[in-house]
Amino acid sequence: MKTALRFVFFVSNIVLFFGCQRPGEILTVFHAGSLSVPLKEIVSRYQAQHPEVEVRLESAGSLTCIRKITELNKACDVLAVADYSLIDQLMIPAYADYAVLFAGNEMAIGYKKGSGWEKEITEWNWPEILTRDEVHFGRANPDHDPAGYRAVMVAALAERVYALPGFQQQLIEKDRQYIRPKATELLPLLEVGAIDFIFNYRSVLVQHNLGFLALPDSLNLSDPELDTWYAKACVEVDGNQQHQRIMKCGEAMVYGLCKPHTSKSHRADQLIQFILSQEGQEVFKKCGQPVIKPRLSENSIQSPPWFSSLKRELGYDL
């Protein structure tokens, strides 16, 4: 009996000892759904080097990520969005000091491999195919996800390129039941055959082994030299306050990240540097997403203290 009591006492002390230990630091990352695959791998590598840190990834449409901070007052250590200009417009200066531009992408039209569409859809006939009554497509909600307003921009540019009066409005009004808060939520609908096509980022379609129609540069929002052309397509979307509306005009897509004011952790700076490091860039490339030389947005009011050394490390500091 005494032996059993000693054992219980010993085990209780161990539980109390470890239960009172300070837990490892937790970092919360709000990020665009299109970054889910590369960030999961990057964070796994980061935590292998820093086991004392737990990183929690929360995926949503980029506008939704921002509203978690600006409307819901949720704590966030790192914010990574699919459109850097959202940080410029909605976060700086009240909620963040800077936006680092770090990756690109392009719009494409995805479909399930083996569905037969790869043999029929082309750069020239996709507007006709998507507007057929028997064909259904999905897109993200423009008020939540940049992929949503970029899909509308693609339609607006296609109306001009293919001389199709009313095409943009026709596409906006069709298949509204398949609009989702973020573009990655369209993937299951495509997989089960509920829809035939989705507007999404090329990197996401590659990561999920889906077929896709690559759009010409005049439509895919990927080429900075075409920004004047892209800017002809504008969409009004919800801002970061109730009843606030902002105008988004087309430009070559560039992803951005920042450390919001809600974070006071030096670990957040460490994680951002890891994401932007050579190792992080290699992960993005492997996941089909092009990287760019990290640079600060023009609206940034302060450069993070580590930014100059990062550029030297990457060989970008001339």
Number of helical regions: 14
Let me know the largest β-sheet: 6 strands, mixed
Find the structural class using helix and strand composition: alpha/beta
- Could you spell the SSE succession in H and E letters? HEHEHEHEEHEHHEHEHEHHEEEHHEH
What form results from the Cα inertia axes?
Answer: globular
> How many extended strands?
13
How would you summarize what this structure contains?
The chain folds into two domains: 23-104 and 254-314, Periplasmic binding protein-like II (D-Maltodextrin-Binding Protein, domain 2, 3-Layer(aba) Sandwich), CATH 3.40.190; 107-237, D-Maltodextrin-Binding Protein, domain 2. The protein contains 14 helices and 13 strands. The chain has helices spanning 2-19, 36-49, 62-70, 84-90, 126-130, 146-161, 167-173, 187-191, 202-207, 217-220, 227-230, 266-276, 278-286, 307-314, and strands at residues 25-32, 53-60, 78-81, 100-104, 107-111, 137-140, 179-180, 197-201, 211-214, 234-238, 245-249, 254-258, 291-296.
Task: Walk me through what this model shows.
It is a single chain. This protein has 318 residues and is an alpha/beta fold. The chain has two domains: 23-104 and 254-314, D-Maltodextrin-Binding Protein, domain 2; 107-237, Periplasmic binding protein-like II (D-Maltodextrin-Binding Protein, domain 2), CATH 3.40.190. The protein has helices spanning 2-19, 36-49, 62-70, 84-90, 126-130, 146-161, 167-173, 187-191, 202-207, 217-220, 227-230, 266-276, 278-286, 307-314, and strands at residues 25-32, 53-60, 78-81, 100-104, 107-111, 137-140, 179-180, 197-201, 211-214, 234-238, 245-249, 254-258, 291-296. It has a six-stranded mixed beta sheet with strand order 2-1-3-12-4-13, with helices on both faces. A five-stranded mixed beta sheet has the order 7-6-8-5-9. The chain has a two-stranded antiparallel sheet with strand order 10-11. α2 (36-49) links the parallel β1 and β2. The chain is globular and about 55 Å long. Residues 1-5 and 7-23 have low confidence and may be disordered.
